[in-house]
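Q: I'm a student working through a structural biology exercise. My instructor gave each of us a protein and asked us to get a predicted structure, then write a short paragraph describing it. Mine is Flagellar assembly factor FliW. I'm not confident about reading structure output yet, so if you can add a plain explanation after the tokens, that would really help. Here is the sequence I was given:
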Amino acid sequence: MIFDIKSPILGFEQIKKAKIVQIDDFFARLESQDDKTTFTLINPYGFRDYAFEIPDYYIKLMDIKDDSELRVYVIVALNSPLEESTMNFVAPIVCNMTNNTISQVILDTVGYPQYKQADRIANYINKDN
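A: Happy to help. First, here is the predicted structure for Flagellar assembly factor FliW. I'll explain a few features afterward.
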């Protein structure tokens, strides 16, 4: 499925169309259809409680309705070992599956101080297991 990017990924404004490839229950890959850029995405709900209100600007931009099917991912910067990888909870990728649109939603850090831009996966792994 090809998505139209309505609000660009910061620093990658040239990407206008992308495909999301689901890797497993946690990981996905966003592949630009405009160039060879790819991003590793992760399901944030597998790691923590994660909730935010989508600002009206993005709701209008993506034509989000009450019955729209939405998926949320965060971009992960992979490192070795995997536990040192970081997740960006401040700028989630919101996908409207109903009309095939994507936006990177930039959250107000004052309103969401619990979310970090570079939060280590290690912070969410139970080391007792």
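A: Here are two points you could use in your paragraph. The longest strand covers residues 70-77. The chain has a mean pLDDT of 94. It's a good idea to check both against the output above yourself.
Q: Great, thank you!
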